[in-house]
Amino acid sequence: MIENFDQLRETVLSCKNCKLHETRTNVVFGVGNPHAKVMFIGEGPGENEDLQGIPFVGRGGQLLDKLLAHIDLSRETNVYIANMVKCRPPKNRDPERDEMEACMGYLRNQVYLLRPKIIVCLGRVSACSLIDPKFKVTRQHGTFFERNGILMMGTFHPAALLRNPVNKPDSLEDFLKLREKIDELGIPV
Q1: Measured distance CA(12)–CA(29) in Å, rounded
Q2: What global pTM score does this model have?
Q3: Tell me, what's the pLDDT at 147?
Q4: Which of 16, 41, 43, 160 could form a disulfide with 125 if both were Cys (CB 3.0 to 4.6 A apart)?
């Protein structure tokens, strides 16, 4: 394991472990407070993220920021946001298994350095990879699971909420449950 974020970032920026490096503009390492106890993990960068090198900066990211603000959280101060893969899959397709496996060590290293108390999986891809391969976002969203001493919850991906706004109230409820859990556990934010 790499023992600091700067060194890990430098390693990831030069990664060529899978074919995604061939088409990327930028590696999207992660953003937020490196001491945060709440971590959000999406599936992979989209076009805007690839161009800017920052996760969740498009319309979905704007929605995520609003949901975070609603529960007094912010990427600038008290959460950390990353993705399963650090390079954009072509045409925003789901990351393939070998691509996620190529990046999994980097994600594990980010989790190791952060030592989060709670991880929120944004969307089916990350929830199936990190919580349960059979995870169903429409049925299990907002439910907490414990994995290796970390509480994990899956919820709707912000981009999916833009495509299907009928799920926005459920997503807001998930974020309110997250806030309740943070307060219940006395997690400093």
Answers
A1: 7
A2: 0.97
A3: 94
A4: 43
Query: Helix count (H) and strand count (E) of the chain?
Result: 8, 6
What's the CATH code, domain 5-183? 3.40.470.10
Dihedrals φ, ψ of 169, to 5°? -60, -40
pLDDT of 39-68, one tens digit each?
999 999 999 999 999 999 999 999 999 999
pLDDT for residue 13: 96
Q: Map tokens 């007094």 to a residue.
A: 72
| Interstrand relation of 80-83 and 31-32 (parallel, antiparallel or unpaired) | antiparallel
120 SS3 class: strand
DSSP letter for each residue of 144-179: EEEETTEEEEEE--HHHHHH-GGGHHHHHHHHHHHH
For the sheet containing 38-42, what is the strand order?
A: 31-32, 80-83, 38-42, 118-122, 150-155, 144-147
Within 10 Å of residue 72's Cβ, how many Cβ atoms? 11
Three-state SS for 41? Answer: strand
Question: Do the beta carbons of residue 70 and residue 175 sit within 8 Å?
Answer: yes
Condensed to tens digits (0 to 9), the pLDDT of residues 67-115 reads: 999 999 999 999 999 999 999 999 989 999 999 999 999 999 999 999 9
Q: Where are the domains of the chain?
A: 5-183
